[in-house]
Specification:
alpha+beta, f41 fragment of flagellin, N-terminal domain, 5-stranded mixed beta sheet, 17% strand, elongated
């Protein structure tokens, strides 16, 4: 009889041990990883659903990362906007309360405050997160503005704001500081006083004239250029009666010149002496009016001029200037506002006439010439050049009216918008001084000089002679749309910004002009100049109706943050539900697995002992 070894008989025990060890390894790996299996195949029948849930969780996590980055940028933007708002309030307060005591540089303490505030404001507009500039539109890799020092004082051959303010002051004051106005007597009369403009784009413009002078005849401003007349007639005014000339300043404000009749000598300020007859009184009125124009030209006009120069610097517009041309009058002269758009030889009309059906197209919008009864974007062929310019301005929306002086037409576009003008009648268009098409891009405006005192119109600064303060991306689309982030499958937020947006630009231009203006302390009108400037700065930095404000921008960014928060809250709930379902498929119960491991370890220990005993069995022991 043969006796077999134990190995053959106990092979099933070895197989069982291997199976137990495999199960133990699987359970140990599950306990370590927290998952049923580390392979797609080992996840069971719900593995397809698990894959979908995992993709959903991953997508939510990606949106969460985007939301975090965008929220960080929005927080920095809001800090910058709040800083701009606080700076605006600070400078407004300084302009309202600063005493008019000039330092050795011709500036008040409020203006010194404005200089520091301006530098701070420029720094805020160049805020960035990481390597991303937040107020440069789409050009996020470059600063939004040039340095504050360059804006104010220029760099190299490029003029800064300070130089442009000085040039504009000279242009607005004109020759003899008469602000491009002339006081005279109409022909063939010695009892009338005329106050007329010279047709320049600069200086003061005539508003309404009011009077309580007995027997006086008032003619409101009429003609091109406008002239107003006060005719005393045959009766002298009485003591205390007055006449007021309302003057329009370059910045859109108005200032009155009120002259009161008096018999007192010396004549008080703001008065004119009643003479022995109306001829003598008229001479006194003219002298008083001349002095008042000159004084206003050296006080409020200086401040208004500086405000306007700052606006033209910070709010670029396109300018198209035509060549000088003559009318076809009997004695040909340069075309003017009164020159007719169509007429025969020997009349004040264009050398080549427009006809019914002709068009002038401005930025894609046609102006049509009709024989009569013009409505909307139509012009009668019997109208004059000034009527045409007014119609063009209504299309461009410019704040700087187009002008015609000395046969030269200067067309101005809207803020920051290119200008393109063409015509179906090239001959008549050429008679206006233009070749078709005429176009220009937005640029800072400055006085067409030197000489500046006799300048008649504005021209566009160039990159070689004028600083362009904003260096970010420009466009006609919404600034918010320059940066878009998707924070959910169906939700995007827009959070772009440009430093040249109206609210920030407006604050910057008012702080800048307050910081840039200097005043000659030896000028007897210096206090009045500074006072007029401070009043305007204080008024301009107050909330402006119908204009974008910094608070409006903050509200828009707050809306973006609210949209992100709503999406994030919703995603947090969705992620929680998806993760729970995913855990049920691929996850484990650690207590259950631990219990199974202990049971397997016990079974393995018993199997090892049994196998050991069997392998130690011999024939002797068996017998």
């Amino acid at each position: 009889m043969s006796i077999d070894g134990v190995s053959g008989k106990t092979s099933y025990i070895g197989t069982s041990i291997v199976n137990l060890r495999t199960q133990l390894n699987d359970l140990t790996q599950q306990l370590a990883s927290g998952r049923v299996s580390t392979t797609y195949a080992g996840q069971g029948a719900d593995r397809g659903f698990a894959l979908s849930l995992r993709a959903q969780v991953s997508s939510i996590e990606a949106f969460a990362n985007t939301a975090t980055n965008v929220n960080t940028r929005l927080s920095v933007v809001n800090l910058a906007l709040q800083g701009m708002y606080d700076i605006s309030k600070s400078v407004k307060s300084a302009a309202s309360t600063s005493t008019i005591v000039l330092n050795d540089k011709g500036q008040t303490s409020g203006q010194i405050t404005a200089q520091a505030a301006f530098s701070n404001a420029v720094s805020l507009l160049n805020s960035q997160t990481g390597d991303r500039y937040l107020f440069s539109g789409r050009t996020t890799d470059s600063p939004a503005t040039v340095p504050a020092e360059d804006m104010l004082n220029g760099v190299g051959a490029q003029a800064g704001l300070t130089q442009l303010i000085n040039e504009r002051r000279q242009a607005d004051q004109g020759v003899g500081n008469m602000a491009h106005l002339a006081v005279s007597s109409p022909p063939l009369t010695t009892t009338a006083t005329s106050l007329g403009e010279d047709g320049s784009a600069f200086g003061m413009k005539l508003g309404a004239v009011t009077s309580s002078l007995t027997g006086a005849t008032i003619t409101q401003p009429t003609g091109t250029p406008p002239v107003a007349t006060v005719d005393l007639g045959a009766v002298n005014p009485n003591e205390g009666e007055s006449v007021t000339f309302n003057m329009k300043m370059p910045d859109g404000t108005s200032e009155p010149i009120t002259l009161t009749a008096t018999t007192k000598t010396p004549t008080p300020a703001g008065s004119f002496l009643i003479g022995v007859d109306t001829t003598a009184t008229t001479a006194n009125l003219q002298a008083a009016l001349t002095n008042s124009v000159q004084k206003l030209g050296d006080t409020a006009l200086v401040a208004a001029s500086a405000i306007t120069a700052s606006k033209d610097f910070f709010t670029p517009s396109a300018t198209v200037v035509g060549g000088a041309v003559n009318n076809q009058d009997t004695v040909p002269a340069p075309i003017g506002g009164a020159t007719l758009l169509s007429g025969a030889a020997g009349t004040d009309s264009l050398a080549a006439s427009f006809a019914a059906g002709d068009t002038i197209t401005v930025n894609g919008t046609p102006i049509t010439f009709v024989a009569s009864g013009a409505t909307g974007n139509q012009v009668n062929i019997t109208d004059n050049v000034q009527t045409l310019l007014t119609r063009i301005d209504s299309i461009t929306g410019t704040d700087t009216p187009s002008t015609v002086t000395g046969g030269v037409i200067a067309l101005h576009g809207g803020d920051g918008v290119s200008l393109s003008v063409s015509s179906s009648n090239t001959a008549a268009f050429a008679a206006l001084g233009f070749s078709a098409p005429a176009s220009a891009t937005a640029a800072p405006l400055r006085v067409n000089g030197p000489p500046f005192a006799t300048a008649t119109n504005l021209i566009a600064g160039t990159s070689s002679n004028t600083v362009s303060w904003y260096t970010g991306e420009t466009g006609t689309d919404s600034a918010r749309g320059t940066a878009i982030a998707r924070v959910d499958q169906s939700v995007t937020v827009q959070y772009g910004a440009r430093a040249n947006e109206e609210a920030m630009r407006y604050v910057l231009q008012n702080i800048a002009v307050y910081a840039a203006v200097t005043t000659n302390a030896s000028n007897p009108n210096s206090n009045a100049q500074v006072n007029a400037l401070q009043q305007r700065i204080s008024a301009n930095l107050a909330p402006q109706s119908g204009q974008q404000s910094i608070q409006d921008m903050q509200a828009e960014f707050a809306g973006a943050q609210n949209a992100i928060k709503a999406s994030t809250d919703r995603q947090t709930q969705l992620k929680g539900m998806a993760q729970t379902m995913l855990d049920e498929i691929v996850g484990i119960n650690q207590d259950e697995v631990a219990t199974k491991i202990l049971a397997l370890q016990t079974s393995l220990q018993a199997s090892y002992q049994t196998t050991s005993m069997l392998y130690q069995t011999s024939l002797v022991k068996y017998l």
